[in-house]
Design goal:
5 helices
């Protein structure tokens, strides 16, 4: 399945995909620390990175009207990453991680750069 046509769709559909993905991230962040299997721990950074690559891919077309859409998508991903880490402060067994925010930002940047390379506007 080719996802490029979906990424290129502007307007309400694009915003809907962003909101759906943000809800997925929020839901995953709401998982209690004790409910996360220990086998997942070593892959935490990979999970964060991958999730935010997708958010960056989705956000880039939304900011395509900006002079620097990669920067817009990156700022969006960084702000959502910060809010995600703040949210985890209220989830039992979870904590605020600066390292997680940096990985989120890197994933968002890579996602936006991939979208730009694929000419997703």
């Amino acid at each position: 399945m080719n996802i490029i046509p979906y990424l290129k769709s502007r307007g309400k559909l694009n915003l809907l995909w962003i909101l759906v993905w943000m809800a997925v991230i929020f839901s995953a962040s709401s998982t209690r620390g004790s409910d996360i299997p220990q086998a997942v721990s070593p892959y935490s950074y990979l999970f964060h990175f991958s999730v935010y690559v997708i958010l960056g891919l989705l956000a880039y077309p939304f900011f395509s009207g900006w002079r620097r859409p990669v920067l817009g998508a990156l700022l969006f991903c960084v702000l959502y990453g910060v809010s995600d880490e703040l949210h985890q402060l209220f989830v039992p067994g979870r904590s605020f991680g600066v390292d997680d925010m940096l990985i989120d930002a890197a994933g968002g940047l890579v996602g936006a750069l991939i979208a730009r390379r694929l000419d997703v506007e």
